[in-house]
Design goal:
The protein has about 475 residues and is α/β, with parallel strands linked by helices. It is about 30% helix and about 15% strand.
């Protein structure tokens, strides 16, 4: 996208790209690649990033590393050599000696883009799109941590680029690759619980959990001196507001702030809502309602209940999916019996029983009530055959796609619509109002003007889509 599109043009283009068949190329890496491995660059190394990257040791040649925060502080990331935390830069060089280190992803793509086949992204949510857009515009295959992007327009654009450029893409919702997710889908398709019209998902975040402090604020935190080695302007990414450095934003608590993250729903929803969404083939919601005590223009509140309405799909009935955020919790269903309600979980309630898993991901799914589960376990002859292909994990699945051209399990044609529902839920929480959604026209049709403004969030100069191509990005690179 070298030219800015009007909203009408964009909607038409996005709809066409989504309707187009998704044909993946057979990839072959040239003889210059060590052992025919894809060359990987990674953007965002703190927290999740460095851990994610370790999954590609041996399967990829890591040629570029980028993070805006290159402080020499061994406590800021889990880089360990022989079990001991080490200096950040030293650790990166020891683990990935063939990689060049950058603070600006644009500079990295411009300098070594011809050596890069694929890019991993683990920055804060609102920066996902900028990095991905430049990489995908240059024909690079992309892995992005969940949630995929920060706005509906960004999601549709990335899905369009996936199809236009025949790219291998994957979102990092690990549970989608689990055995449990496949079992749940197979059990439902086999009719073990009948027709499903209700799904309940819940989490203890944002009240508790990593990355949240239960913040309440009508302004950004007071700024303090930026630590040496941190490019704060680059960390802000596309956000066009005066925001100073604070440890209430970086490195771990940005998820609570709407300009940078997507709250508890964006953090955990792509895990816990993913399995019923996939099993039931839910598609786009048409209505999102919310119960919340207060709204906050900057920080996600605690205690939201979000109700999604999904329309009938063929012979499958409409579904209401309810999402509970801490400290609110759903009323314990009778079918759980004496089992305690865990901090996170999911229940699909059908006409003949239910499917349940504790935790944010489908590690240990089971049928409900317990009598149904015990009967199923004791009768191997009645077990549902495994009909859905298994994968080794979300990271290995992407590498397999890079090497074979096979579509990864959470590619953007799946992950973008899933995340669109998540984002629409955040708009309901942010505004305290319902969102009635027309997915074809990409319009909110009820009177929620504040949510309508957030469908397409404008980025600041240097971070807009038109600024992030090989032809245009150079003018915004420092040094």
């Amino acid at each position: 996208m070298k030219k800015s599109l009007s909203r009408r043009q964009f909607t038409k283009t996005a709809a066409a790209s989504i309707a187009a068949p998704f044909i993946l190329p057979k990839l072959g890496f040239g003889a210059s690649h060590a052992a025919q491995k894809p060359n990987l660059a990674w953007v965002g190394l703190g927290g999740q990033g460095i851990g994610n990257l370790s999954n590609f040791i041996g399967s990829c040649n890591v040629v570029g590393l980028c993070d805006v925060d290159l402080r020499n502080d061994p406590s800021r990331t889990p880089i360990r050599i022989k079990g001991k935390p080490v200096n950040f830069i030293y650790g990166c060089k020891q683990l990935y000696p063939g990689a060049k280190i950058y603070q600006d992803f644009r500079k990295m793509f411009l300098e070594i883009g011809d050596k890069i086949d694929a890019v991993g992204i683990a920055t804060h949510d609102s920066s996902h799109f900028a990095v991905a857009h430049m990489a995908m515009s240059m024909g690079k295959h992309v892995f992005i941590q969940k949630p995929l992007a920060h706005s509906v327009t960004e999601l549709r654009t990335l899905q369009g680029l996936t199809n236009q450029n025949n790219l291998i893409t994957q979102m990092g919702n690990q549970g989608h690759s689990f055995e449990g997710a496949r079992l749940i889908k197979e059990w439902y398709q086999a009719g073990l619980i009948g027709d499903v019209e209700e799904v309940i998902c819940w989490t203890n975040r944002p009240e508790k959990g990593f990355g949240f402090k239960g913040l309440t604020s009508t302004s950004f935190p007071p700024k303090v001196k930026v630590p040496e080695g941190l490019d704060w302007d680059a960390w802000k990414g596309p956000v066009d507001k005066e925001v100073g450095y604070s440890d209430d934003l970086h490195p771990f608590t940005w998820r609570a702030w709407w300009d940078f993250g997507c709250g508890g729903l964006g953090d955990i929803g792509c895990h816990t809502i993913d399995t019923p969404y996939w099993a039931l083939d839910l598609g786009y919601p048409t209505r999102v309602d919310v119960e919340v005590e207060r709204t906050d223009p900057l920080v996600t509140p605690n205690g939201s209940i979000v109700s999604y309405e999904f329309p009938k799909r063929g012979s499958q009935p409409p579904v209401r999916l309810r999402w509970f955020e801490g400290p609110t919790v759903p009323i314990k269903p009778q079918m759980l019996g004496e089992q305690e309600m865990p901090a996170d979980g999911m229940i699909m309630i059908g006409s003949k029983g239910a499917i349940y898993h504790p935790g944010m991901r489908p590690n240990s799914p089971q049928l409900l009530p317990d009598s149904k589960w015990q009967e199923y376990r004791k009768n191997p002859s009645k077990r549902v055959p495994k009909s859905i292909p298994r994968v080794e994990g979300i990271f290995a699945d992407w590498v397999n796609g890079l090497n074979t051209g096979e579509q990864p399990c959470s590619n953007f044609n799946y992950a973008a619509p899933l995340t669109e529902g998540i984002v629409l839920g955040t708009l309901a929480i942010r505004t305290g109002q319902s969102v009635v959604w027309d997915p074809k026209k990409m319009n909110i049709t009820n009177n929620n003007s504040e949510a309508s403004k957030l469908i397409d969030v404008k980025a600041r100069k240097g971070w807009r889509a038109e600024d992030l191509t090989a032809d245009t990005a150079g003018k915004f690179v420092k040094g």
